[in-house]
Amino acid sequence: MTERSLLSRLSQKRLSLLRELGNLADEGGVSLYLVGGVVRDLLLKRETCDLDLTVEGDGIAFARLVADRYRAGLAVFERFATARLAFPDGLKMDIATTRRESYAQPALLPTVQPAAMEEDLSRRDFTINAMAVQLNRATFGQLFDPYGGQRDLRARVIRVLHAGSFQDDPTRIFRAIRFEQRFGFRLDPATARLLAQAASMNLIQRLSGPRLQNEVLLLFAERDPARAMARLGQLKLLRFLHRHLCYTKSVKRTVAAVPKALAWWGRRFPDSVIDKPIVYLMALSSESSQAVVATMIRRLALSREQAKKMNVGRQRVERVLKRLTDPGTVRPSQVFRFLVDFSDEACVLLLAKQASAQAAGGGSLLKRQLVAYMKSKTVKTALTGRDLQAMGLQPGPLYTTILGKLLDARIDGTITTEAEERAFVQKRLGKGDVRSEC
Ligand code: ATP
Question: What percentage of the chain has pLDDT greater than the value 70?
Answer without folding.
Answer: 93
